[in-house]
Protein 1
Amino acid sequence: MTSEQSKSDISRARILDAAAKTFRQKGYAATTLIEIAKAAGMQAGSLYYHFGSKDELIEEVLDIGMRRVHEAVEESQERLPADSSYRDRIRVAVEAHLTTLLKHDDYTSANIRIFGQVPEEVRQHHIRQRDAYAELWRRILTKAQKSGALRSDVDLGLVRMLLMGALNWSVEWYQPGRTSIQTIADHMCLMLFSGIGIEEPIRSGENETVA
Amino acid sequence: MTSEQSKSDISRARILDAAAKTFRQKGYAATTLIEIAKAAGMQAGSLYYHFGSKDELIEEVLDIGMRRVHEAVEESQERLPADSSYRDRIRVAVEAHLTTLLKHDDYTSANIRIFGQVPEEVRQHHIRQRDAYAELWRRILTKAQKSGALRSDVDLGLVRMLLMGALNWSVEWYQPGRTSIQTIADHMCLMLFSGIGIEEPIRSGENETVA
DNA sequence: TCGTAAATCTAATGTGCGTTCGAAACATGT
DNA sequence: ACATGTTTCGAACGCACATTAGATTTACGA
């Protein structure tokens, strides 16, 4: 071992990268160890020197993916000046989440895409981690609401779900060259804070206010 | 053949129902024909009397699922009085989409959950249908924007994607007894039209307007 | 240069699944 | 009751995959 536990770690990293990429593209069950091994430059059997099973491998991919968004959003909050507005807090959180998701991170998008497909046992392993990330958002939104930055008559749990859905779904349609990540984040925040509606001129008999 | 081509059609329907349910739960590759057959009350081999292959079966499930949302949203528009506000048009579309998704429709939720996992060839078969549904929403939103009901400075394509994401993601977290579908739709529309932000009292030095 | 441990290869094993096909069971009109 | 078409069964085939274990190579300190 020379500098910092090389070789085994390098291979391990290559395998994980290959796995994340392949899992994201093809889904859990459709991804074969042969494929992952080839992408990592080795034979399928060799994977077992580094991982005990396919499930162990996928668990680590899921783990890393979730850790990355979590850390990104957490750091986005810490980087912010202490006197930042709550809108800014939410805005940078949205940007951090989206950026991690869409910018060279197969791990994060793999997590989102395959989580619903993995065996129950593997899923159970990650519920704690998922909950922790949800809790982070819960805190951000709750503080904003308590401070009066968000309407007090909305169900924040619901808002969070809808928000996460809008953001996470982007892995299904986002294409690098088309719309910038920043633009997506801007639109999301606009919808979240102000909506995109305009009071309509009364057309005939009906008029209505928003729920 | 007695009344209206019974027996074969009944079995066919039972198989499709079982397939939709199982595909939705376990995903594409993880679902076995043995499982589907058992749920339909027959042997795996018998499925081949009704369908040529696993892919043919899944294609039909995807087809039905997409057709159901499409028709539901289309009918929601036709049912509406001609002089309805554009907000109401969008609102009922959201409600129709969500209701079809979450209320006893394994086909629709299966479509959403497994579309990303099916073999490329099967996917190609449905792009046309997906585009047609997207086009329906595009029309609804464009008319609303042109009439002045929606801000003119937003990218409607982006809005549509974020909206669909928020709605579709609900299949991952929705649980029948908890929040009513209507409440979800209300929150979505509130966010879409007005947002949930409140102008913040200026805290220190910073103040900001929305993008 | 040698020896030892780490890392990878190679070939084999077993299993589960999609699919096939002829035989059996069922239904229906005559 | 018979004959014909419809529907399901049941066993078998072949293949692709996860996993295993021993042989082989590679890396590196002495």
Note: The domain at 54-193 of chain A is CATH 1.10.357.10 (Tetracycline Repressor; domain 2).
Protein 2
Amino acid sequence: MLDDRKAAILRAVVECYIRDAQPVSSAYVTQLASLGVSPATVRNEMAVLEQEGYLLQPHASAGRVPTDKGYRFFVDSLAGPAPLGEPQAELVRMFFARTHGELEHLLHETSELLSRLTDYAAVVVAPNAPEPGRVRSFQLVTLAHQLALAVAVLANGAIERRTIELPGEVTEAQVHRASAALAAFLVGGPLERSGAVPRTGDLTTDNLASATLQTLRQPDYEGAEQVFIGGAARMATAFDAVSTIRKVLGIMEQQFVLVTLLKDVLDRGLSVAIGTEHGLASLADCSVVVAPYEVDGERAGTVGVLGPTRMHYDQALTAVEVVSKKLSKALQEGGKPSAARHRGGRARDSHGGGPGAPGRSIGSQSHA
Amino acid sequence: MLDDRKAAILRAVVECYIRDAQPVSSAYVTQLASLGVSPATVRNEMAVLEQEGYLLQPHASAGRVPTDKGYRFFVDSLAGPAPLGEPQAELVRMFFARTHGELEHLLHETSELLSRLTDYAAVVVAPNAPEPGRVRSFQLVTLAHQLALAVAVLANGAIERRTIELPGEVTEAQVHRASAALAAFLVGGPLERSGAVPRTGDLTTDNLASATLQTLRQPDYEGAEQVFIGGAARMATAFDAVSTIRKVLGIMEQQFVLVTLLKDVLDRGLSVAIGTEHGLASLADCSVVVAPYEVDGERAGTVGVLGPTRMHYDQALTAVEVVSKKLSKALQEGGKPSAARHRGGRARDSHGGGPGAPGRSIGSQSHA
DNA sequence: TCTGGCAGTCAAGGTTACCGAGTGCCAGAC
DNA sequence: GTCTGGCACTCGGTAACCTTGACTGCCAGA
């Protein structure tokens, strides 16, 4: 589609613009990309590139600026992600060497890591798949007069809990029996195990048990995706127009929108969405770099970076890639309860570090 | 300290400046505060007020702007918090009428509520006191080969969990016995119950039990304060200098600093800290309005509002006051497990609403 | 097909002048 | 003594204007 020279010129323009945030002139390209031609020739080529929609001239006497299409070509023709700088690599190594507490904490910190690696805002979407783990222990505990708590410990250390309302006439003994029956039924299998609890003979007990079972099968309201945003404040550094900052922060508030955005991008099989490629008008000046991460070999969640369209795509791609890989691995490490956890309460690794360091990012956690 | 007329003039200046964000002239004050004197007189008074440090003139031909000291006088002489507007009151009522899920979720949403009420950023610091609840149920569950999970359900529905590393030679039966012994020892009392577990006769079991007890007595690493920030993006609307926005967002990233700030203000017995009154140079353009909230009659956490020094103090004060009261009450409602929870895993109220509405704020949750 | 040169265009920056908002001060009234 | 009206003064802000310089587009010639 583009001959070598045009491609080289386009690449040069994109690179310069990403670096300097200023329109790139033909002379600058000439001296940077050693093409052996004069500025005039470059000018001609640039005029063609503009006609074809790769470049744009803010005004007549200015240099050229890449369009979304220009960035797209740049990204697609990228030799591949740049290797991570040594200091960054060290950061990643350090980060994943430490053991983190529960999943939420890990993901939250991961968003900060990614943000620090790239210097853009980072987004981490938590896994929303229900815990697949088998039940290791089940208990029904009476709390108040007409209130009980169903607590299940899953094999991976996660805890599922549901509040159960008791009809008035249930006795403590009946709760106990129902608990035992449910434990016998559930332990060793999935929490949502189908079928009915074997009858105990006592009607109230059986009713309680089946009601509890029903509740357990309903997904937790936490099922909605959780989003962690790291380094939102870096957006204020990436742009200098107040209005843009406002728009972007505004979108980041609507975390539901953000999750949908990332999902869409991934679903379209992309790892980069540039400018208007994702349909959000208020993020027209932003690009998104995403990668899924896996738990037990299955796509579980998403990590991503949100930055200006003139972002360092190569670095962002690498960072996102590396972090998603490492995160997958960290979550993979099976029984290790320090990480493979979701929705359950908190766990802490017995050798986990003390109180976390002061947050460095406007981290965000919400139920989108 | 200030005679009535000076006070009236100062108040008028502050009010106008809060409303218009523009230096206030003597003429404007004259027509607004019906003092029955001419602009010239007001000018003379304003000159005195400036000399005494209540007002400031950005430049010679400009009107006056309040200093921190001026705002302080204004706040202190405030007749009292303004009543909440009807729409706001409705918002609060609606909010607290709904049942919320677990504590974290509630606090997170509270920060958004407060932000929406005031149109500034809101901060909610979670209670950091350990759950005082009595143990209702205790269990030690083997997870992996050398890994167990201690799970305690407290009377208020909270769940405490600790990971326990098992020495290699422990059998499943021994874990079981230790679990039973610990349950017998702990249930009905506090989780940190002092004393030793009664011996079972089996050395390994006893060792495991006492090791577990030891772990239980150590505070969870989540003991560090959690902070929820709602509506951080509103800061971008409150200021129009990019550099200020950057500074403020920067501080909000360092959530540890933020917590300390709120703590300091409260400890000094203040409910409002204006401009440089709190020592943070980068928040010199900001004021903070705080109030503690209570759980079981004891100070548990803090709610606060962070806005520009020219904030609507009366409204902010009311909002913070009302929200802290209502929050205390919501958390008070004793056995109700839907709210009185911390650190434990998640619980959901059986009649809790489905997936929350899309987040409207850059909410933030971190371990400071 | 490339190149050098030249004219054209336009943003940015600096200068000037002007306007107007607001003060300070003073003399006179109450 | 206190207040007021009036007047001169001060500056920030805006607009008009010009200059500069950085580009490009185009064209004629290599």
Note: The first strand of chain A starts at residue 55 and ends at 56.
